[in-house]
Amino acid sequence: MDPATAGGFSQEQFREACAELQQPALAGADWQLLVETSGISIYRLLDQQTGLYEYKVFGVLEDCPPAVITDVYMDLDYRKQWDQYVKELYEKECGGQTVVYWEVKYPFPMSNRDYVYIRQQQELDVGGRKIYVVLAQSVSVPQFAERPGVIRVKRYKQSLAIESDGKKGSREWSS
Predict the structure, then answer these.
(1) N vs C: which end of the chain shows fewer Cβ within 10 Å?
(2) pTM of the full structure
(3) 29-74 tens-digit pLDDT
(4) What residue ranges carry the coiled-coil annotation (predicted)?
(5) Which range is most confident: 49-63, 132-146, 158-172?
(6) Integer distance in angstroms from the first to the last C-alpha of the chain?
(7) What is the pLDDT of residues 124-135, one digit of tens each?
């Protein structure tokens, strides 16, 4: 199922995000460890065709339950309070799907970036474990024309899978 045309994500895409939480897919590619600190590891992979990087983040957030992380991630109004780089961030119904518009402030002389994307969140039961999954991907809709002086990020995608660490915190994977 293509999110850009079908208005959503397939169950297979949600299952793939869960599988990555259990078995990180770093083998077979040139993933580089970028940073490792405070229980968080960040890897990146260069796409030779585009020159863009894909990132993967793995880690444990102690004292932060999965439901709280998911709520913070999904709450656009709250993000506007803590993220100083948000210039504009809102949802709009477009053709039966909820689309997010997000403009990010960049310092001079760089141009701001904007994103137009759909996202969905599900709670899955995988072998008796509750896993929270959020998927997001760029879409092109006529309601959000490109703006002069702002660079549109057209290849945005994110997968986020979070589960309890068995204590008071969370294990998480994001790409």
Answers:
(1) N
(2) 0.85
(3) 789 999 999 888 899 999 899 888 889 888 888 888 889 999 999 9
(4) none
(5) 132-146
(6) 19
(7) 988 888 899 999
